[in-house]
Amino acid sequence: MDRLSSFFSAKGARAAYHILTNSAYTDVKALLPFHIINVSPMYIRISGLRGYFCWFDQEFVRSSWIITDQMLGHNNMSPNRLEVVLMLLMLMVYNASGAFVGINIGTNVSDLPSASDIVSILKAKKIQHVRLVDSNHEMLVALANTGIEVMVGVPNNELLRVGQSRPTAADWINKNVAAYIPATNITYIAVGDEILTTVPNAALVLVPALQFLQSALLAANLNTQVKLSSPHSMDMISKAFPPSAATFNSTWSSIMLQYLGFLKRTGSSFMLNAQPYYGYVKGQGVFPLEYALFRSLNPNSQIADPNTNLFYTNMFDAMVDATYNSMKAMNFTDIPVMVTASGWPWHSARKEPAADVDNALAYNTNLIRHVLNNSGTPSQPNNQVSTYLFELFSEDLRSGSVSGESWGIMFTNASAVYSLTFEDVATASTDSPALHGMFCVANSSAPHSALKQSLDWACGPGSANCSAIQPGQPCYKPDDIVAVASYAFNDYYHRTQASGGTCNFNSTATISSTDPRSTGVNGSGMASGPISIALTEVKKVMMAAIEGLQWCRGALVPMKNDGTGSSCASGVDELLQRSWQEGAAAQRLGVIVNINIFPLSKIARDKEDGQFGDLVLRLVEGGISIL
């Protein structure tokens, strides 16, 4: 267990992948309550898992599920072996908290603070993810033992050297990555920055550089902890709107095919520098400023993709979806997007009127809230987009596209340019009405035609996540418009209340203390009623099971190999019962729990929960998503 426990400091998905591909855990894999068809850095494909999936619990993880006795109920497991299986399941859902917001730290600053002072600023701001534009050794030392996740960079001026020599790439990894791990939590390497559009003479060595560096990571046994990618600008996309028709510039087709193939093979992300500020300026009035700043649009100015009828309430989402669709046009549909730079300047030497403090504060505040809300994008609602703000300090010595503009959120004397508090915004973004026992529900006395109109608005211009209530999806209930509308209304209210969203919908909705999830919205033909459980609660019961199994080891009446032994089993049962009794959140979720002595946990309303075929667990930054 010591080996397994050590993985709790890493991402759960990566740890699970490590265990599943490590020969030392062959016996553990044989005990898993599902059959592993294949494993890659990006996917774990499994069969035989029974579960009911429903997206009620956004305040926890965006997906909820029932785990039945097939998942945890193996009567012939000894405590030791079952403990390892439970720990593996824990690792697979561990840290599934969704997207994060980090920040860029550049060094082209005339009066750059010391590395230790910079780390003090990061700690004060509660910033847990940073992107270094290079591999500054002083910063890597200062970041040691802080727990902050670090992305280091191969600067553009080093790319040619690294991309033309395998030994040089290995030397770069040894000096700039391996030498600082594990004290410094390096998780990503950004190879170059906007190479194809800013340094085209280095384009041909981009993929070789990635391959050489990947070989060096493999040799250092760091390939599961550290991922490689290369940031690209929106200039790579020929026409970004409508997003559904976006494609990469054909000039780079050959290189992009190789690059995307590399990302897929290694389970890495597509890195995108998404700057709506430039989209707004270059648009010359085509898009309203509110659209770029995440502000509410006039009802007469709603922006929709004519090919998909998806509404876009902000330019950031449109840029990300344009990237997804550009990859799709090249037959790559399973590579997540990570935004490596996004921000707004508060000053411009070119006298651009949109570059001011008020707009910079509005954009960055709304961006943080949007990302931490885990809402995904209109075309990818279940794919959260982790984002690095641009930037901590304004790089007054930098040349290139951002020269002449001040983007930093801090002055070099550690004072703030404007009041941007990561922790407060994060709290506001997750401070849902559900957490306070308040819900937005449909008015049962409202005419069905009015409810239908409000439902269409919530799922369209309102950008509520209505994927689970669409035909064929598990929460679809065509004969109960009140229940389905309540789902959409509450989702909208949950997402927007912190930024001024209301629960009215032309008088078809009202605030209630009754959770709409108790209305029984579920899959057609499935058991009706409150049958969802958040992964948070699954982890809680797993931890209780592990605690009980550890207690069994020291019990006077040890558990027998066949799983019997009344004293031990009763002790485990007692711990599990206590776990659920103390878990008030489980009751708020409307979970009906039946805990048997063995199997340890049977969570279901009745025997009619769904039977699914092969499922794919997609390993993503921060945990897993279920396809």
Structural features, described:
By secondary structure, this protein is of the alpha/beta class. The protein has three domains: 2-49 and 63-96 and 534-602 and 612-626, no CATH class; 101-285 and 317-430, Glycosidases (TIM Barrel), CATH 3.20.20; 437-519, no CATH class. It has 22 helices and 21 strands. It has a nine-stranded parallel beta sheet with strand order 9-8-7-6-5-16-14-11-10. The protein has a four-stranded antiparallel beta sheet with strand order 1-2-20-21, with helices on one face. Strand 20 and strand 21 (623-626) form a beta hairpin. Helix 8 crosses helix 11 (206-219) and helix 16 (357-372) packs across helix 17 (422-430). The chain is globular, with a radius of gyration of 25 Å. The relative contact order is 0.14.
Distance between the termini: 30 Å
Low-confidence spans? 1-17, 27-97, 424-437, 518-573, 579-627
Average residue-wise pLDDT: 71
CATH class of the largest domain: Alpha Beta
EC number: 3.2.1.39
Family: Belongs to the glycosyl hydrolase 17 family.
Catalytic activity: Hydrolysis of (1->3)-beta-D-glucosidic linkages in (1->3)-beta-D-glucans
Organism: Triticum urartu (Red wild einkorn)
